[in-house]
Every structure is written in structure tokens, then in C-alpha cells.
Amino acid sequence: MSRARLASPHGLRCEYRIGPVGIDLPRPRLQWRLPVASGGEGFEAEVQLALSEARLLAGSRWESGCRPCVDPWLDYDGPPLVSATRYFWRVRLRSSNGADGDWSTVSRFTTGVLDPKEWRASWITSERWESYLQVKTVMTPEIEEVCARQFVREFELPGAIVSALFFVCGLGSFELYLNGERVGDHRLDPAQSAYDRRSYYVAFDVTDSIARSNCIGIVLGNGRYLGAYGFGRPKLIVQGEIELADGTHHTILSDGDWLTASAATRENGIYFGEELDGRRVDPAWCLPGSDRSSWERAAVVDGHPLSAQLIDPIRVTQILEPVALRRLGPHDYLYDFGQNISGVARLTAHGPRGARIELRYAELLGDDGRPNRTTLRAARSTDGYVLSGEGEETWEPRFTYHGFRYIEMIGYPGVPDLTTLRALVLHTDVRPSGSLSLGNDLLARVHRNITWGQRANLMSIPTDCPQRDERQGWLGDAQLAAEEAILNFDMARFYIKYLDDIADSQLDDGSLSDVVPPYWSLYPADPAWGTAFITIAWLVYRYYGDDRPIRKHFDAMQRYVDFLSGRAEGHILRTLGKYGDWCPPGSILPKRTPVELTSTWYYYHDTSLLARLAEAIGRHESAVQLRARADAIRDAFNREYLRDYGYATVRMSPDDRTPGQTSNLLPLALDMVPADHHELVVEKLLESVEVHYDRHLDTGILGTRYLFDVLTELGRADLAYAIATQKSYPGFGYMLAEGATTLWERWECLTGAGMNSHNHIMLGSVDAWMYRSLAGVECIEPGWRKVRIKPHCVNNLQWAGARIETVRGMVSASWEMEGDDVLLIVEIPPSAAGEVYVPAGSVGRLEKEVILLESERMVFQGKAVNGTSYSGALGIARYENGFVRLDVPSGFYQFRSATKVE
Ligand code: BGC
């Protein structure tokens, strides 16, 4: 019997990253992609791991043995890993008939500090911080910040170096240097956290740049380690682990022998900006043998618990050239970068020593054509650079970032040009993993704005906005945008970290803060904000098949739900809501939607979702209890809010009879509406959208998240599409018409000093609907084990498609209309199954001929009557409300169906 040789797995990753350094998990997840041809049925995988590539090949290694390969990953469970060590591993497949595949190429990961007891370095600081006072910002009294300082340590190594790893945490923000050179390309390390609960250290492999004589240096700034948030003066810890060729091990530890001096960077603040005096830059500050007679010794201080920073770092991901330059005054120029971003400028200048150039950032222009900086509120967002006068100078701020499209440059000596400034796009460098293409220009632009807005709001935590005096991890914004973020970017490690942040912020009574990390202590959270804990854990499980956060945090999530129960009166949450269906058209406050209704709805949402999570990790008893509690909440919800005119709606005037959109659609979204009221509730929702609002939405951030899905589910994808493509207020098209390059916080175009950020991501949830319902790609079993392809060829949309790089490989669907035919091309990755709905006739128009072809073979033909089954080359198909549904294994497919055969 001839056995086709199995191809080898590829795309090896450890904890979602290729060759990561600093893994501090005892059982890291080893992941791979299956070869496309493997199909995925019934084979096993085997992993080998060793301390070097040579040992791996020579047999001195750990072997997992063959394990069923339901998912293309394995959580390492061999002998305990050792800290600061490189591990090499590879994987191969064995098919059910016993044939071994080829080994993959060898991949590696490097451990960090696996046991906190292994930290031998001391936390250090300076006793001489120069402080300056910043203005009061929203929610915070005056913020006191300090000028940056530098810290160094020289050391010699007695022999050839085999490996050198440094583990570094500098709070609030640091840059590492070795022998005068900056190490790595990260910005704004370390990741934000509740530093006293958990501070993140960054692992650097400097094997290639370390020498015999070395000077290691750190520039340390404020970041968010501020007294105003309950922290203190900046501090740092460094532990270097160095292996020499002679087998000896050397450690470099931060301690009181380190030296410190003030840095050339003076002011450095997230909201306020950065000031650097080029005359004070000493290029030798971090070179071995430099004169440091004026430096002082560092002081040893208490520190915080440390965890490895496993998320992708913040980096410069793109550099924008200005699209326009205008002179505003004698020494005043305006740069327009054409796009609202998060980042900083890079300035290139030539001029006299001591000349100061100021950069003022803005999202908007005023009617007078000058920057309008009022939307930034108390965030000064101003950088300053004093020229050293030594030839051409290039500078970019390192300890701040801004949300901007425009930069006003003041004080440039001479005449600047388009090359003087660049805009550096900065954010957590999550890998783009999804792409969406839409045959509707307006929606394509909405999608583009959303991805820009999403990028701008990833700063090691999900933020609300990048520009004004907030930039906080508002849980509501985070949970609403999370699915869209996951479809567009590889967010696994980002959200796993954020779930730790949320758990760290939980109080003993189970409550959470609206803002995490709780730099602003806003306990207890509005339930629509607190839901982030359970919602994001669910999304990580659903999209990455990763149940570890659920296992880790289940008890904490249960405590959170119990906290809600403790606050409920007869299962109704009357007191916890603060924001509710925030920012509907014409208002900040929820307007028509009672806040109690959304709070109680989220109480039901979280309780029933936690029941599913409990089931997923085998906590059956908890699942049963939660399910029963959820049923009781649902019944109470209906008793309390369901009326003869639909769900409770706040009337705007005594004779106002307009049904609420959010009130009616939320219960539909979770299937909470009693059967005998279903028709009424649907009717009220449609009446509101179609009659009262002329096919516009009247939803805030919560309602908007579900509006499109609910209408689509009701068979009204056409209406969802009409709302999404509205050009008039309120709608996404209106934002575009007013020049938006990201999404706004409000449906209105506001430009004053209130709540009107022009780069908020919380309304970006519509992007997930476009992926799931227009391109038609949906993950319906955890980790994309099952993929549903169900595109809606609605209205004038002629084509759409999405490609998503999942944990199983590429999932894609694209369709286009060819006359009355639709051509659908689908890719289901190995080890996944597909449930494909081929569009074949419009809703309600039954009794039509459906012709369905796979490639050039006709697989089905017949009268399409709902529920009719056909059998063909691909198995059994069923006609369901305008789609022919069929189940397929992994592979590539092409279908053509007639949508209009009379
Ligand atoms: C933030 C939000 C946040 C909200 C809570 C605002 O100031 O920018 O996006 O969710 O407050 O109400």
C-alpha cells in the first residue's frame, strides 16, 4: 500500500510568538500550523524539546510521545524548565495509519525568571529627582512628575560569551542601553499595570552586542508610575544572566553601586509631552570608561512583584509623511499628516545652539484653519527640543505619545519643509491577522477608520482614546471593541495579559473598577463595563481556543457575578449602572434606555456566559447553578421591563411613543424574549428604526454593538446594511462626510472641550458584523474548530471577502455577484470543519430553483423550499431561508449559485 508522506507542520510559535524571549510560564503553549493537505482527521502530533539544536538531533531531549492532535498545540508538560535558558523544539505528525510525517524546522523560546525567588537584584532609584507640577486632569488632582534620570553600571566579563540575557523593569517607563547603543526597538516599556500588584519586566537577549568591557544604562521616566495614581518616584530593577564559554555563569544585578545622573530628557509625561535639551546630551553617558565623577550612587528601595511581559511591545509600526504644510505665522507652521493616529513626531532640524522648537499636537483644525486643541482638554500634548547646534539633529520623543493628525511647529529657525517632520505611528505591535474587503466604498472606509482607531487604542492596555487627558483602560470600551480587535489583529497575548490586569484590580468584595489598571479607582464598575472580565475571557477562548484564562480566573469571575447578585434586588440591578447605553445620538447619557435595564441585562449576560465558561472547563455544578440563576434574572427582567409597547423606554416627552432601539434589541440578542411577545418586540424595534428614525440608529455604544447582529439574525440584513451605510446623521457615513479618519466618541461632530474625542474605538464593534455577516466568516466552535461561512449578499453590495489567520491557519471567504449568480470561494483550514451557507435566493421568496455548483461540478439542483434536503457530491444540503447549507471538511471550495431563477 502506498502511503503518502505527511508534510511537516510549520509556523511554530510559543505562546503565540515566534522565538519569544522571557517566557515565565512553567507550561508554555507550543503551537504550530498543520500542513494544508493533512485534512486534520485523526492524526497525532509529537514534540521534542532540548537545550540545543545539536542535542535535539542527537537524542538528548524530552519527547512528548504521540498525542492526539485535536488542536494544533500542546502545553509543555515535561521536566521543569530552568530560568534564563534557551529551549529548542520541533514537531511532527503521525497519521492514523501509523505513517510518520517529516519533522518541522526547529524553533526556540527562551525562559525568563520562572520563580520569583530567583530575583536577586535590588530595586533602585535616585534620591535626587527634580520634580515639576503638571496641571489637574480629569479625575486626578495635580499630577507631579519628575525629569528623567539615567542609571549606569560598568562591568567586565572574563571570557568569551555564550549568551547574555537581561531582565529589566523600569517604572514607569524606561529605555535600555548597552555600550552607548539602545537595546531593541520597544517603546514605552514596560506594559502598563497595577504596578504594586504586578510589574512587568522585559527580557532582552543581548548575546550579539555584549563585549568584554561593558556599560549598561537605563533612562528612566514617569510613565504612569505616578504619585497621583498611588505610586511614587520611578524605580528600576535589572538582572543580567550571562554564560561564558568556559561554563561559568555571571550575574549583573542592580544595586546601590549603580550610578545615576539627570538625563537630557527633562519633562516627560504621557499627557503633557516631552522636553529634551540637546545641549545636555552626552553621547558617552553609557560608554565604558566615561568620566562619571559627578554622578551619584543609586539608592536601594522596596519594589513590586514581577511578571514577564509576554505581550507584543509598543513599537513604531509606520512612518507617515505630511500631506500638507502651511505657514501660520513668522515661525509657526502647520503639518497635516492626513490621518488621526497615536504616536509622536520625528524632527530633523539644523540651527543655532539653544534655539527651541516646539511641537503642538492636535486632532482637529478650527474654523480659522489653526489647530483646535480644546478636545485634548488638560493634556498639553506639547514636545520641545532645544538644539545643540551641532549640524543636523534628529529627535523623537521617547517617553510620551499623542493622539493627533496635525502638528503645529513653533520656533523653527529658518524655513522648514515637508521633510522636517515625520509622524511615527506608535502602539502595541500586534500582528495584523485579519483583512476585510468590501464592495462598498463607504463601508471600506469605515473599516479602515476602525483599524486605525483600534491601533491607536492599544498601548499595552486597551484605551478609550489616545489624545485627551484620559487614555485609560475603560472596560466598557475594551469589551465592546474586543471582537473586532481579535478579527483584525493577533490579540491573544494582549487580552490574556489584560485579563490578569482585570483580576489584579478586583477588590475583596468581588467588584471591579470601570478603569483597569485602576489608576482611577472607579469601584464598583457599571455592569456594562465590568462585563469585560467574562466577555474577554470568552472571546479569547472562542477565537484562540485558549481556556487557560478561564481556568485561572474562574473563581474571580464567579466572585464578580456573586458581587452583582449581592447588589441585585429581586434579580434587578438598580444601583450599579452609571453610564449605560452611553453616547446615543444627541446625548452623552443613555437617553431612551433605562440604565437599570442595561445593568440587569449585563447581569444576565454575564451569569449565562459564565455558565458556558464553567461548562467549557468542566465545572458542571457551577454551570447548573449559574444557569438557574440566569433563568431567574431573565424572568425578573421580563417582568420588570416588558410592557405592552415592547421593552421599557424612557419617554422624551409625555406623548412620545417612540419605541427604544437598545431596550428592544438587547433582549432579542440573548434570546430572552418570551415567545408570545417576540413578534411585538421585533415589530417595535423595526418601527423605531424604519419609521421613527428613517433607517438610522438611535443607539449608544451598547445598543450599537448588537443592533446589526440582531437585525441580521431577524432576516433583515438589508436593514442592518442600510443603517451601516447611512450618509446622514447619525451614522458612520456622516462621520466620514465630516472628515473623520478614525471613529468618534459621539455621533455628533463636536469640537469643544467636552466629551468629544475624534478617536474612540467603542463604536467600532460594527466591524465584527461586517466580518461575520457581509464577508460571512464566523468562528462557531472554540479555536475555529468549526467555521461558519454565511455571507449576506444584500442591497447593492456586489462583493465582499475576509481572510483571517487563525490558530488553525487561514480561514477565508470571498464572494461576488456575477449577474444573478453569486460566486463564493471558501477556505477551511486543516483540523477545522466548515458549515457553509451558499446564498441562493432572497428571504421569503421560496419555491425557487437553486443551482449550486462546486467548481464546475453541479452538486445540487432543485426547487428551493425551506427545509428541502438535497444530496450531492458534497453530502447532504438543506435549503434554509435563502441559503443552501452544507457541511464540509477542511479544504478549498468554490460554489456558484443562482440567486434569481424564476
Ligand atoms: C471615556 C469613555 C468611557 C466613559 C465612561 C469617558 O470619559 O472616554 O470612553 O467609557 O467615560 O463613561
**Count of individual beta strands:** 49
Q: Can you tell me the overall shape? A: globular
Mean pLDDT across all residues, rounded? 94
Which ligands accompany this protein? beta-D-glucopyranose
The number of distinct helices, counting runs of at least 4 residues, comes to: 15
**What does the radius of gyration come to?**
29 Å
Which residues form runs of ≥5 with pLDDT under 50? 842-848
Strand content: 25-35%
Q: Termini, distance in Å?
A: 51 Å
What's the helical proportion of residues? 10-25%
Structural category: alpha+beta
Please outline the major beta sheet. 11 strands, mixed
3D architecture notes:
The chain has 902 residues and is of the alpha+beta class. It contains 15 helices and 49 strands. A hairpin with a 2-residue loop joins strand 45 (848-854) and strand 46 (857-864). The longest helix is centred in the C-terminal third of the chain and has 22 residues, at 595-616. The radius of gyration is 29 Å and the shape is globular. Beta-D-glucopyranose binds at residues 464-465, 470, 474, 476-477, 579, 582, 755, 760, 762. Beta-D-glucopyranose binds next to helix 3.
Can you tag this structure with a few keywords?
33% strand; globular; 902 residues; alpha+beta; 11-stranded mixed sheet; binds beta-D-glucopyranose; 10-stranded mixed sheet
Quick overview:
The protein has 902 residues and is α+β, with helices and mostly antiparallel strands.
